[in-house]
Amino acid sequence: MNIKEVRRRNLRKLITKLLLEKQFETQELLAKAVEIDKSYLSQMLMEPSQKGARGVSEAKARLIESKLSLPFGFLEKTDLEQNLETTKAESFELALDEYIVVPVFDIRASCGTGYINDCDETSENSLVFRTSFFRKKGISLTRGDTAIIYADGESMMPSINHCDAVLIDIRAQSFDDITSGKVYAFFANNELRIKRIFKNINGSLRIASDNPDKTTYPDEIINKEDLHMLEIKGRAVWKGGDL
Description:
Shape: elongated
Strand content: 25-35%
Number of strands: 9
Order of helices and strands: HHHHHHEEHEEEEEEE
Largest sheet: 9 strands, mixed
């Protein structure tokens, strides 16, 4: 059996295990976590005789191992299936329980009438998350791809409350990265804000607050020709705060 076929079979077993254990809700989220196009990943899992099948190259194998915190050469073990069910898989099981430390920035993003930060320095604090949680959400495990900031104001209540800590996936920094209806952090008029963004079919954006009081927090329409006024800084993927 050639090495690409060994990698393919092991990759199929690994993905099946991760999905069954709910480490990822879908294969698409897993593909996002390992930074491989979902169609390309599907093609790597296909039988070699199938049209469109792709071999699992060494570069792709190393990328998957790195992103899933697996040992080097993990996908080339011919006894992988046995290892996953015995004590030989301890390093893999530990990898699923590892933690990722996310820096907390002394920055407050406006969820109200306006907030301009006096500084953007990292505080001495950090928040710790399980890597399995990041994988399930499709969030990158690479340090520097995420950050914690704080919400200021009530415009995003009840979704995000005043002083909540907000986890930002800072990989999403272009308009092409925007998924309509999701919450994003962005700069506008020298102010960092957190709002829900909707894409309109004419290329414009609707900036919306979750607070139902639309008199105080009305929606804003940003025309296509004015998009340069916004600078996307990342997508809000989690929040935490006081009860």
